[in-house]
Amino acid sequence: MRLKIVMAISAALLLAACSSKPAETGGAASTGTTTTTTTSTVPQGAQPGSVDDFKTNVGDRVFFGTDRYDLTAEAQAELQKQATWLKTYPQYRFVIEGHCDERGTREYNLALGERRATAARNYLVALGIDAGRMQTISYGKERPAVLGSDEAAWAQNRRDVIVLQ
Question: Which residues are CB-neighbours of 156 under 8 A, at least 6 positions away?
């Protein structure tokens, strides 16, 4: 009987010793000091379901060719990723902004930006996103993402951007 009690106490002490994390030693054998490491509770990366999550992990924009508003295969793939995220987080309403590069008249670019935003809107509706959650707006060439008058800058400015609300 006494042996069973000793074994039970030994087992409990052994389990208790295994469940605690030993202090890390940074040269403790030579200095006689110990150091402990604290772990941060601040999450790394964007919080799932947040605006930052959408921008960082999904992407908030699609791009277009010069004077084009049709969705390329790449743009469709991006919109499909966005639609999947938007279905997962239906609490968000959003605006689809249509943008253009600096070339062309103000009126032409406003009309082109609207056609771009509408193309994305129609594609998202076809993928099952409620049209009541979204609005479109065209900024034409008024809000460039990249300043410059070369093809690299223009390519970044021919875009739609989804802005979550």
Answer: 63, 145, 146
